[in-house]
Amino acid sequence: MLCFIMWNSAIKSIGVVKTSNYIYVVPLVTLLTFALIIDEKITLAAITGCMMILGGVYLAKKRR
After folding, report:
1. Among residues of the chain, what percentage have pLDDT more than 70?
2. Looking at residues 32-49, what average pLDDT do you find?
3. Which range among 20-29, 33-42, 45-54 shows the weakest confidence by mean pLDDT?
4. What torsion, rounded to 10 degrees, do the Cα atoms 8, 15, 46, 62 define?
5. pTM above 0.85, yes or no
6. φ/ψ of residue 41, rounded to 5
7. Percent of the chain as helix, strand, coil, to the nearest 5
């Protein structure tokens, strides 16, 4: 429930388009959370994926 409240708050604050770009960061947060909580190994493929996600979010934000 807290996630939905924060999501709606973000939409009200910065708008739908900007908020929608950040939905792609969810896998990155999941990866980092699993690494911290259950000591999951972070692989080169995961790091590459994270860099691609961050690059995509940056490009999407920059073009607007």
Report:
1. 97
2. 93
3. 20-29
4. -170
5. no
6. -75, 135
7. 85, 0, 15
